[in-house]
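Sanity check

After download, print the first record. It should look like this:
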Amino acid sequence: MKFFKANIEYIILSLSFILLAILAILSDGYFEGADNISHFNISRYSFQHPYLFLDHWGKPLFTLLSSPFSQFGFKGLVFFNIICGILTSYFSYRIVKELKYDNAYLICIFVTFSQYYFLMQLTALTEILFSLVLIISVFFALRKKYLVAAILLSFLPFVRNEGIIIFPFFFLFYMLFKQYRAIPFLLTGFLMYSMIGYFQNGDFLWLFHKNPYMNSNYGSGSYLHFLQNMDLILGWPILILSVIGFITFIYQSLKNENRKQFSAQIKAEWLLLVLPFLAYVSFHSYLWGKGIGGSAGLLRVMTGVLPLAAIIALRGFNLFSGALGKWKIPKAVFLVLTTAIFVYTPFYKFHFPVEADSAGRLIKHAAAWVKANGYSGKKIYYYDPMFQPEFGFDPFSSDTNRIFFQLSSFPQNELEVNSIVIWDAHAGPGDGGTPLQKFMESKEFKLLKVFKPDVEFEINGYKYKICIFEKIAFNKNNNNYALEKNLE
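Expected structure tokens:
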């Protein structure tokens, strides 16, 4: 029992890692779909194609740090995120210990099992690394390692662009605590990557000129979109406790404004924890409300600052914990019950292990059919990136006999005879900009096979399906509509 009490945080972190590792091994689907594959491909093939280390969409720092793990396949990249998530929980623990919060070890549970945070650790996406870089930066700032904190934070936008929204609060933190010497170091990441880009492609300002989000538009929605879904993002336990913790924090800030030492800590918490979280949520709410900045209203983007919410939530929890004596509830019972509720929360809302969705299963069947029928030796063109892992080839190589493409026009005159095209109702008319009608009415593409899900669903105005075509010499008698009837 003594060993357990002395090492409880490490026991929690170890058990959390084991649980996540098991779920990662058993999962065969991708939460958030094809973005996982795109990040994996950039990370996996960056050594073969070094320019990918500066790919803006792939995120340069994420690609650099994750690339050794992705050499072991997609699961390797997932394990990279799991490790980052566990480290984030650990440094969150170090932060609350530094701030002298009670029940500090519980933050390991609060962070790991926040609903979206738990789920995102099983992906190949960038949000978990973002949270790690942010939390470590906060930790070193609180430990008065100001230069280290500034240098680390300077690389945050190279994990996710919106990291820049955190910078003003660190700037104010350094100004308030008279650490002016650290401020220039907030430019470290920008200057380093700008110089690398200059030597790579001759453009010092490539970070701006090649930003893929400047003119992209995925729609818009309510300014309250993220707030309205915060119960799904955080889970009700964390949400309730974080609201209570925030109110408590405001009360204590006002109550202790004349206590010099405590006031310094309160100011640091405002600038490094509370305001960055609020600003981040507000920033994404504004982007989605205005329909700018490449915002697609994805709830997963909140994952990057969920550890900050978890730390605030621990304040709310400690308010309840402090009242246990009045309620005559044994503290051990309360802690065990709390742990059980938090651990169960993501499992209540999401299904684990992560399973392939209907489209994902159909992609696997279609790829298997292509290989089983002798077409894998031909050039294969496809729209949905999720086909790439099924064929397992380098999508960036110009020498490969299988090529990934996302063209904005019908490729009839660009493909060689006997090549294979896999059109799907999601990426084909979406990113590819090619409606199925173009292929069906063509005299140069012959329909080979149609795959439909067991349960119909619509996307991009189509009932979802996958159609496999072969490029042929012009044949005026080619009738794909008639072929489709025979293939059904």
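If your output differs, re-run the checksum step. Summary of this record's structure: DSSP finds 23 helices and seven strands in the chain.
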